[in-house]
Write a structure and sequence with these properties.
This protein has 74 residues and is mainly α. The chain has helices at 2-6, 14-22, 32-35, 39-44, 49-55; strands at residues 37-38, 59-60. A two-stranded parallel ribbon has the order 1-2. It starts with a helix and ends in a 14-residue tail after the last strand. 1% of the residues are buried.
């Protein structure tokens, strides 16, 4: 909270930004295509579903979630 206060609480994504700032020197960078593949990046680069299924551990859905389109409204 001290960090947030020192920034006048002007942080775009506090849940991520503050953690990133506090642990800046303590991170290990991993292969983003394996552990944090943005679905839109895969789509825009023509990475096919079969490749993603075999080579990616974590898919990051930013924005619209594919499962939200199928949500029922009662």
């Amino acid at each position: 909270m001290d960090l947030a206060e020192s920034l006048n609480y002007e942080v775009g994504a506090p849940d991520q930004d503050l953690l990133n700032m506090m642990h800046d020197k303590q991170v290990k960078f991993l292969d983003e295509y394996k552990y944090n593949l943005f679905a839109k990046i895969a789509y825009d680069n023509g990475i096919h579903y079969e490749n993603v299924k075999e080579e990616t551990t974590i898919i990051h859905y930013a924005g619209m979630k594919p499962w939200a389109a199928y949500r029922r409204t009662w």
